Amino acid sequence: xPRSVNSVAKRARRKKVLKQAKGYFGRRKxxxxxxxxxxxxxxxxxxxxxxxxxxTFRALWITRINAGARTYGMSYSQFMGKVKANxxxxxxxxxADLAMNNPEAFKAIVExxxx
Length: 115
Fold this sequence. Notes:
Layout: H1 7-20, H2 32-70, H3 76-85, H4 92-101, H5 103-114
Helix pairs in contact: 1-2, 2-4, 4-5
């Protein structure tokens, strides 16, 4: 019996990977073996960094809240402790946005917390 190979599926798989590698530099975009490795690595990075993005944004929000709180003579930890104690249910994302884009609203929160 002759050897059976599914060239249609093989070609489709390769086209799919080469399409994902579009925009890569040099042989990474058009040579199958190089593109396959580049796409595999890119997928690993994208999986990892979807999780890291959450950490990075939280760190950014904390930095912004800290900067905003220090302009009114409080540290980040003091501010957040008093926010929780006063049952102000604003998360770090909202507080950071207020500190950056709406300083008077952030000042009102700080004043309420300082009482």
